[in-house]
Design goal:
The complex is a heterodimer of chains A (113) and B (115). Chain A is mainly beta. Helix content of chain A is 0%, strand content 55%. Chain B starts with a strand and ends with a strand. Classes of the chains: A mainly beta (113), B mainly beta (115). Chains A and B meet through strand 5, strand 9 and strand 10 of A and strand 4, strand 5 and strand 10 of B.
Chain lengths: 113, 115
Amino acid sequence: ELKVEQNPLFLSMQEGKNYTIYCNYSTTSDRLYWYRQDPGKSLESLFVLLSNGAVKQEGRLMASLDTKARLSTLHITAAVHDLSATYFCAVDSSGGGADGLTFGKGTHLIIQP
Amino acid sequence: NAGVTQTPKFRVLKTGQSMTLLCAQDMNHEYMYWYRQDPGMGLRLIHYSVGEGTTAKGEVPDGYNVSRLKKQNFLLGLESAAPSQTSVYFCASSYSTTGNPYEQYFGPGTRLTVT
């Protein structure tokens, strides 16, 4: 059974600081996804990581994937209040691609002025 | 394009009642999914479909049925609702390309309360 663990589950930080969210998963997979969810809203795709060593950046967010360690990180640089949200990582459930995703429990991020 | 839409947005049921949630997508995606989201649990896969006329069970399928009679629609049914099915339900669709294989696009969600 595939397990996806995120930590921390809750993070309160100040604007301007840097921090990293970690996502560990239990079985082999070459595809990892990061999503953002604002309160009461749907999920918005942030990054799709397709291979070992993949790194993607968008604004103050950077995601990376180490398939050998079964670890992905989401790094936040010089945080701003607008980045407050819940962030989820997700992994292919079966490795086949079309069979759905297994999600972590999410990291609730609050960025305070 | 409307993307992925869900009907209804909110619903309150009494225990034992039945209902159907409708998901529609206008992106010609082959794959569609139903998830439920509970506080502190992330999203969990209920059922999914890899093509018109085909469905499969996900992680938490008990108490739900699905149908995909048309490529653009994916229906989730609750035959006899239970309080444990109180949740937010999300539909998603995806496709495969070289750049972003199986990236999932989510609908706005349906908030269901069973009393």
